[in-house]
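Hey team,

Filing this mostly as a record. A colleague (T.K.) asked me to run one chain through the structure pipeline before their review meeting, and I want the input and output archived in the tracker in case anyone asks later how it was produced. No errors, nothing strange. Just documentation.

Input sequence:
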Amino acid sequence: MYVAVKGGAAAIESSWRLLDDQRRGDTGIAALTVAQIQEQLSLAVDRVMSEGSLFDPELAALAIKQSSGDLVEAIFLLRAYRTTLPRLGYSEPLDTARITLLRRISATFKEVPGGQLLGPTYDYTQRLLDFALLAEEGYREAPLPGNHPTHVAVQASDTAPSSTSSIVPRINDLLAREGLLETPQPEMAAPPGDLTRDPLMFPADRALRLQALARGDEGWLLAMGYSTQRGYANSHPFAGEIRRGFVSVELVPDELGFEIDIGDLEITECQMINQFSGSRDVPPQFTQGYGLAFGGSERKTMAMALVDRSLRADELGETKVAPAQDAEFVLSHADNVEASGFVQHLKLPHYVDFQAELELVRKLRQCHATAKKEAP
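Output structure:
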C-alpha cells in the first residue's frame, strides 16, 4: 500500500510538470503576461470575477493564465482563494442610478431620460474573422490617456461625490411611478443570507436566488433563459434597460457610524420587463426580472434577469409548468464549481465500487443463465 501511494505521488508530480509545459506552450513565443490577459481578455476576466465571487481583475487574470484559459477552472481557483480572505464587513447596497456610464441602452423606449449610450458592443459587428488582427502581433501602440475604462475608474474615484446631474434615472422607476410596473418589496424581517458563508437551502427567498444566479454558470443561465423565451415558462420579455459603468462602493465602519466611499466597481445591470399580470385586487401591470454582474457581463445579466423572472412564479401566482420555474432544479445545478467537481470526480479511482458492481452483475448473469436452463 505504501509503495502504491509513493508511486502515485511521483506520477502526480510528473503530471504537474507536464501541465506547466502545456501551459507555457512553445517557448519560442513570448509568454502571455497577467497584465495582457487583464487588459486584452477583459470579458473573460469579468466572467471569472462574477462567478468566482471576487472583484479583483489581476487575480482573475492570474487564474486564467494558471488554468490555461479554462474559465471554469479559473473560477474554481479564484473562489478557493476567496475563502482564505478575512471578512471585514458588508457594503451598503449599490446605487446604480449614480453611475459613470460606459454603455446604456433600452429596447423599450427610443428617447429615455439621460439618453442612450451605445458604448462598446459586439451587437453590430459582422461576426467575420478579422485577419488584420494577425498583423498586429508584435506591434505596440502607446495607450492614449483616458481612453480605457481603467482611467475612467480612477477619474471617478478622484472627483467629488456624485451630484444630481450624474444620476441616470432607471426606466423601471419611471414605469413604476405610473403604476405600470410592479415593485417587489424586499422582506426586511431579517438581513439577507450570504451564500459565501452558508449553503443554499430551499425554499430560498429572492435575495438568495439572485446571489446564486450571480455566481451561476453563464452557459446554464443562458440555456434556462433561452428556454423561457421558447415557451417553457409564461414569459414575454423586453429589455427595459441594460447599463454598464462604474458605481461607488460604500461601507459604514462600526467605529465611524457613517458611510465612506471605498472605491468603484465596474458592473453591468439588466432590468427585464415582462408581460402583464394582475388580479381582482391588482390592476394589470408589467412584471420584472433583474440581473447584475461584475464588468462587461451583458449576456450573463440578461439571462440572469430572464431566469429571475421565471423563478418568481409562486410569488406572482403563476402555475409552474417549466424547469426554469423550479428554483430547486435551477439553482441546484447553476454552480459550475460544484457541477465540475461532481462530474470530474468520476476520473478518480473507483476500483472497489466497480469491482463490487462487476461481481454483482456476474452473479445476476449466472442466475439468469441457470433460470433459463431450468425453464421448460
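Quick notes for T.K.: Confidence is low (pLDDT under 50) at residues 1-5, 142-165. The chain is about 40% helix and 15% strand.
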